[in-house]
Amino acid sequence: MSGQSGLTAVPTAPTAPTAGLTDADLPWLEELQGRTVVVKFGGNAMVDPALHRTFAQDVVELWHAGLRPVVVHGGGPQISAMLDRLDLEVRFEAGLRVTTPETMDVVRMVLTGQVQRDLVGALNAHGPFAVGMSGEDAHTMTAVRRPAWVDGRAVDIGLVGEVVAVEPGTVRTLLDEGRIPVVSPVARGEDGEVYNVNADLAASALAVALGAERLAVLTDVEGLYADWPHSTEVIDRLTAAELDALLPGLASGMLPKMEGCLRAVRGGVRRAHVLDGRVPHALLRGVFAEEGPGTTVVPDGTKKEEDA
After folding, report:
1. What element of type H or E holds 262?
2. Beta pairing partners, 272
């Protein structure tokens, strides 16, 4: 396998991956052996070819380092571009895409037929690793219709779903076979509908169902800002309770990312990271480094010296 990828094979005594990590990070690598890490891939890295390739390399590096990565991807820019080409309306309410049946056809086509295939291809350039699937497959994700909340009132936004159940058996089987699952955030409903699901919240729900050690969310900002827009100081670490208190005041674009992190750590995930996907190798540094970039969310009661 290592001959195909040019990357380090799974180590018996862990060695630090690339991206500026040091020997001080090795204890973290050793502790993460065999653990599942769910990564939400989105933002600028999805449309920048160089960052796209670097992300794929980093995910394969996680695999070679002995972790079990799962990728859940977004696709907002690609969906909007296709809707524009088809002269269909692009509209959002409270940060969520208004999804008519016509829009849902485009969402399904772009996510599973374009974005997922491009990502699977980038990962498989390093070897036979990635397998694509969607939340519809094997009833992996079940969703119910959800509204958007605008000024305290519910607004109908069409075929947008909230994940209410996850059956992770198919994903676990792929992981046990040494594969890297790449999951599109489309879910079935018990009502027979197919729903567009926010990728941040889909990744969070899957991380909880898999008993993942970590959730990493790649986005287009450095992390959670302490006092946006008045300051660009990033909060490097906060507990679930501290994040819960901040949620009502967050901007709509950041809200699902931080809500996903909160749900993850309250559901048993030990750490959730928000990372700047514009920075090459941010994923490796966020997962492996003791003092990683971006914002890290930990469960309540986690002491800094125990934060691993």
Report:
1. helix 255-266
2. 215, 297
How confident is residue 285, by pLDDT bands cut at 50, 70 and 90?
Answer: confident
Kindly report, residue by residue over 85-120, the tens digit of the pLDDT: 999 999 988 778 999 999 999 999 999 999 999 999
pLDDT tens digits for range 209-228: 999 999 999 988 888 988 77
Could you give the strand order of the β-sheet that contains 295-298, starting from the edge strand earlier in sequence? Answer: 130-134, 180-184, 68-73, 36-41, 214-219, 271-276, 295-298, 237-239
The whole-angstrom separation of Cα 166 and Cα 99 is 22
Q: What does the DSSP 8-state code read for residue 65?
A: T
Which of 244, 252, 204 is CA-nearest to residue 228?
A: 252
Token output for 70:
């799962």
Altogether, the residues listed in the chain come to a count of: 308
- Tell the residue number behind the tokens 């040494």, with chain if given: 178
